[in-house]
Amino acid sequence: MMPPSFAELGLTQPTLQALREVGYEAPSPIQQQAIPALLEGRDVIGQAQTGTGKTAAFGLPILEYVDPRDGGLQALVLTPTRELCIQVTQALRTYGSHTGVDVVAVFGGAPIRAQQTRLRAGGHLVVGTVGRVLDLISRHSLILHECRFVVLDEADEMLDLGFLEDVEKILSLTPSSRQTALFSATMPEPIRKLADRYMYDPILIHVEAATLTIDTVEQFQLLLDAKDKPQALVDVLRAEAAMAGGEAQQAIVFVRTKVRCEQLYRLLRERGMNVRALHGDMSQGARDGVMLAFKARQVPVLIATDVAARGLDISTVTHVINYDVPTSPDTYVHRIGRTGRVGRWGRAITFVERRQRRELEAIERHIGTAINAWAPGAVAAPTPVRERPRRHSKPHVSRPDLQERYAKLVLAGGRAAGLRVADIVGAVTSSAGLDGEAVRDVLVLDRFSFLSVPAGEAERVIEALAGRQLAGRTLSLQRVQQ
């Protein structure tokens, strides 16, 4: 049976014209199910990975729903990161190019006054990060009492980053009669409870991403000393390019910290390579430029941190290089899933320092495959390790073998001092250079707070935060003896 066309889903001509202009021919499975339900006014929970077409699944019904003749904010899309906010905004502006709907992006890292000006001038549909939306609400620049459509995009990422309390605060300021859509790759209990509290009789749509799989990725490891990694990266990139016989390639090189990201960018640039960096300390304009250039295939190599690279969904990536071993097996799967997309094969190469062999073994157990050694021209021939366990896509899912490698810390200060989960995660990521997904199990009590970080990073986190100010308090952390 032929899948329905976009026209058969109930979309109007202005939207259909925009879809034709961008080359969309047939709706994806999640679009086939979500678009009619949302056009009928139903609340929708979509469980789907990046790459399934979920932005159009919720974006097209919103554009049909919003009336450009009415002033004020009519629809709000919440995203966990600036990069995803920008990507969603660009997509919605494209889809709505013939509708007259004004789409405004609001996110941290950019001048808030410019965003306030945009909102005063229009803003039928606002796409924003949680923190900046709350900030604009507190300044009375974002009024939600007429907001009739709310989307939570990548809800489990919001949970990972500690934003769920803020999301609830935003939802409580919108009309109870609003229509709500929630999209998430996984459905942990806090997300289910959020849906129970704020959604009315939602339709659950569960779609697997056929392209988000590591089965189409050749995986390798390269055992080496830390001091040899920079030169090894140059050698690997050149060897892989030579192996391709001149065919155009695109590689994402993942690192753990913003400092290392910048260092590698400079090193490769000095070696004459066409390379760009993407990390949280860059200006928003610079980050936008990098993302657009990489998507346009003007840049073959991108050095990126995990958090900065969230939301990048590029089917032409041929290589993923883990310059630093990921903080968890889930992060490994998420990283290498960025290659081998849309029927293509990809290659993933992980640099492993000798002290990180146990972390590699945990990854191998998780994916059910032994990762072969890399050498120029190597072709992967995976060897089963044991029956593959159930695979998850997000790092907040706990596993017994991972818990042993995490250290629990206690922070002097809690709710009584005005501390929130998002504050603590933000302090650790900005001061210690950890990715947000490496900060786990954050619990804020009345006078104390608890958090878990990778055991190997614990002392550095304690040292980095010692003496820093947060919510008017001088931070002091120590290990919890277990």
Question: Would you mind describing this structure in some detail?
Answer:
This protein is an alpha/beta fold and 482 residues long. The chain folds into three domains: 7-206, 3-Layer(aba) Sandwich (Rossmann fold); 214-384, P-loop containing nucleotide triphosphate hydrolases (Rossmann fold); 400-479, RRM (RNA recognition motif) domain (Alpha-Beta Plaits), CATH 3.30.70.330. The protein has helices at 13-21, 29-39, 54-65, 82-95, 112-121, 130-138, 155-160, 164-172, 189-198, 229-243, 258-270, 284-295, 306-309, 329-336, 357-367, 400-403, 421-432, 458-465; strands at residues 44-47, 75-79, 103-106, 125-129, 149-152, 179-184, 203-206, 217-223, 251-255, 275-278, 301-305, 319-322, 346-352, 369-370, 372-373, 383-384, 406-412, 440-444, 448-454, 469-470, 473-474, 477-479. The strands form five sheets. It has a seven-stranded parallel beta sheet with strand order 3-4-2-5-6-1-7, sandwiched between helices. Helix 3 (54-65) crosses helix 4 (82-95) and helix 6 packs across helix 8 (164-172). Mean pLDDT is 82; it is low at 209-213 and 385-404.
Which fold name fills CATH's third level, the topology of the largest domain? Rossmann fold
Order of adjacent strands in the largest pleated sheet: 3-4-2-5-6-1-7
So, the CATH homologous superfamily of the largest domain?
Answer: P-loop containing nucleotide triphosphate hydrolases
**Beta-strand percent range:** 15-25%
Number of E-type strands: 22
Rounded to an integer in angstroms, the radius of gyration calculated over CA atoms is 23 Å
Query: Tell me, what is the CATH class of the largest domain?
Result: Alpha Beta
Average pLDDT confidence is: 82
At CATH's second level, what is the architecture of the largest domain? 3-Layer(aba) Sandwich
Number of helices: 18
Q: Report the principal-axis shape.
A: globular
How far apart are the termini? 59 Å
Helix-residue proportion: 25-40%
Whole-number count of domains: 3
Coarse structural class = alpha/beta
Give start-end ranges of low-pLDDT stretches. 209-213, 385-404
